[in-house]
């Protein structure tokens, strides 16, 4: 523990004894602490913060005192604002040579991983007790007065006592709702637009804070545990705070395949998640940046947000930032047709990010007709499906519908595209939702009435359906089931395109 006086009783451990006992210096490049590095002693005590990519990413804070470095491991990094304290785990004293240590600690050694200097400088010590340290740091990144205080045993907390050095800096937001695109049968033309592929996956907002990753779907549900391959994105960004908007996809060759990502959307068992992460690895396709290092980028124009995003250089095994096209979109449309992709999204270059809003500043065009529908019932199967769900009865809400008072319009039956395993899973979800009356209203004009043999359910499940066209009566032709969506509230499901 740090002490106001470093004198020790006769039976106290020798300096650095714990440090040396944990290391094999024939196997690790770390300094032994045998001698103080040459040079003139500084007028003020020194400190270093090292970014340590060990089993879990963390930052090591070390303070020069009484011939050694007092050390703490800080899992989420040095706090930049007083609003949040961070855990700091007190570790063994380190030798002074560690002020300059960078390198790779080999596997099998204590603290194995890459260590690099993140910040260094001098500090003024104001208070030093067994359970508390107060100091003012003068580094390039860490500047200002901080307190370290013990909470239990080796667990301490680190608190910034000064206001942020950047007055406008704020903590990373805990929740942001994604901006949505407006469907269009005709993509916009003319200057002022950028073009992106429409990725066939799951919309995801990913927050990186203190090297930790949190993934939320379109509805705000935390789905981080389902995609462990994205943990490395936190390590790649390190101390950078960011909120990224994008799509989780699984590629079948060069094409995203929604039915493959569907196989991972509803899995919660850890063993199955680990298996699928290896067999069907997801890729986070990043197309927007909403927050960066204490500041919202959402008021910035799309063109500026994209420039900053590309400057981050986010490209890895489980994430990528694909290019976009500025201009008439001809190249993007050509690639979409050639590879049979879902469609394109056109975005105004001057548009800010409007969280939670469906905006005409973003326009989406689908090469094939596909959209979400709400399940309001099912028809019993025949022949090979006797005793099972034969087809789903689906519908959509009015554009102006509100929860509890919206009209669910019947759109037709979906009877193809199911596997036996998916039918069994759907049946287990539909069984507790059964109800006596129909949740559907007849479509305007008296057409599209719901079949009399239907088994009705509460309209809570949302599914994605591919179809060939809308009929004049508001039904869909030749529909095929693509998968269940748990990332969109039922009352947000409306007819996307109208004649």
Short description:
This protein is mainly beta. It is built from seven helices and 32 strands.
Structure description:
- With 499 residues, this protein is mostly beta strands.
- The protein has three domains: 17-160, no CATH class; 180-366, DNA ligase/mRNA capping enzyme (D-amino Acid Aminotransferase, Chain A, domain 1); 369-492, Nucleic acid-binding proteins (OB fold (Dihydrolipoamide Acetyltransferase, E2P)).
- It is built from seven helices and 32 strands.
- The strands form six sheets. It has an eight-stranded antiparallel β-barrel.
- β23 (369-380) and β24 form a beta hairpin.
- The termini are far apart.
- The model is unreliable at 1-9 (pLDDT under 50).
Strand segment count: 32
- What characteristic shape results from the CA principal axes? elongated
Number of helices: 7
In helices, the fraction of residues equals 10-25%
Nearest-integer average pLDDT: 90
Report the structural category: mainly beta
* Euclidean distance between termini CA atoms: 74 Å
Whole-angstrom Rg: 29 Å
The low-confidence parts are 1-9
Quaternary class: single chain
How is the topology of this model organized?
Blueprint: H1 17-21, E1 45-53, E2 57-65, E3 68-74, E4 86-94, E5 103-105, E6 113-129, E7 132-139, E8 143-152, E9 155-160, E10 180-183, E11 193-198, E12 202-209, E13 212-217, H2 231-237, E14 242-249, E15 251-252, E16 255-256, H3 258-265, H4 270-279, E17 283-292, E18 295-296, H5 302-311, E19 319-320, E20 325-326, H6 330-339, E21 343-348, E22 358-366, E23 369-380, E24 389-397, E25 408-414, H7 420-430, E26 434-435, E27 440-441, E28 455-457, E29 462-467, E30 469-470, E31 476-477, E32 480-485
Parallel strand pairs: 10-22, 17-19, 25-27
Antiparallel strand pairs: 1-2, 1-6, 2-3, 3-4, 4-9, 5-6, 6-7, 7-8, 8-9, 11-20, 11-21, 12-13, 12-14, 14-17, 15-16, 17-18, 21-22, 23-24, 23-28, 23-29, 24-25, 26-28, 29-32, 30-31
């Amino acid at each position: 523990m740090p002490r106001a006086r470093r004198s020790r009783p006769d039976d106290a451990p020798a300096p650095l004894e714990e440090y040396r006992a944990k290391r094999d210096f024939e196997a690790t490049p770390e300094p032994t602490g045998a001698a103080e590095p040459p040079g003139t002693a500084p007028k003020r005590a020194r400190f270093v913060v090292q970014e340590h990519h060990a089993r879990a990413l963390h930052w090591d804070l070390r303070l020069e005192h009484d011939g050694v470095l007092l050390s703490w491991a800080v899992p989420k990094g040095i706090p930049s604002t007083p609003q949040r304290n961070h855990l700091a785990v007190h570790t063994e004293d380190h030798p002074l040579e560690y002020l300059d240590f960078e390198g790779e600690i080999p596997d099998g050694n204590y603290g194995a991983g890459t260590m690099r200097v993140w910040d260094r400088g001098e500090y003024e010590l104001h208070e030093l007790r067994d359970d508390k340290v107060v100091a003012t740091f003068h580094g390039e990144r860490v500047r200002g007065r901080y307190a370290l205080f013990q909470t239990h045993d080796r667990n301490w907390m680190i608190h910034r006592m000064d206001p942020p050095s950047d007055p406008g800096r704020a903590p990373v937001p805990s929740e942001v709702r994604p901006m949505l695109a407006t469907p269009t049968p005709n993509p916009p033309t003319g200057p002022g637009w950028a073009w992106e592929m429409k990725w066939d996956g799951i919309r995801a907002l990913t927050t990186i804070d203190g090297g930790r990753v949190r993934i939320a779907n379109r509805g705000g549900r935390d789905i981080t545990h389902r995609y462990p391959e994205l943990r490395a994105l936190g390590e790649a960004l390190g101390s950078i705070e960011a909120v990224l908007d994008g799509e989780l996809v699984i590629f079948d060759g060069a094409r995203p395949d929604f039915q493959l990502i569907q196989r991972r959307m509803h899995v919660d068992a850890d063993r199955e998640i680990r298996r699928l992460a290896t067999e069907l690895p997801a890729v986070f396709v990043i197309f927007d940046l909403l927050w960066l290092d204490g500041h919202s980028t959402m008021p910035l124009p799309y063109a500026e947000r994209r420039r900053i995003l590309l400057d981050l250089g986010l490209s890895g095994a489980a994430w990528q930032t694909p290019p976009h096209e500025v201009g008439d979109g001809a190249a993007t449309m050509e690639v979409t047709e050639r590879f049979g992709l879902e469609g394109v999204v056109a975005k105004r270059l001057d548009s800010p990010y409007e969280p939670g809003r469906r905006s005409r500043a973003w326009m989406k065009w689908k090469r094939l007709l596909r959209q979400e529908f709400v399940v309001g019932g099912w028809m019993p199967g025949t022949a090979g499906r006797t005793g099972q769900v034969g087809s789903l009865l689906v519908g959509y809400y009015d554009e102006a519908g509100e929860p509890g008072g919206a009209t669910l319009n019947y759109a037709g039956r979906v009877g193809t595209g199911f596997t036996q395993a998916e039918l069994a899973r759907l049946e287990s979800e539909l069984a507790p939702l059964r109800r006596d009356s129909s949740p559907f209203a007849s479509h305007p004009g008296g057409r599209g009435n719901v079949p009399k043999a239907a088994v009705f359910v509460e309209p809570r499940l949302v599914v994605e359906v591919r179809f060939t066209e809308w009929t004049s009566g508001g039904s869909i032709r030749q529909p095929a089931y693509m998968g269940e969506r748990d990332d969109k509230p039922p009352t947000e499901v409306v007819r996307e395109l109208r004649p």
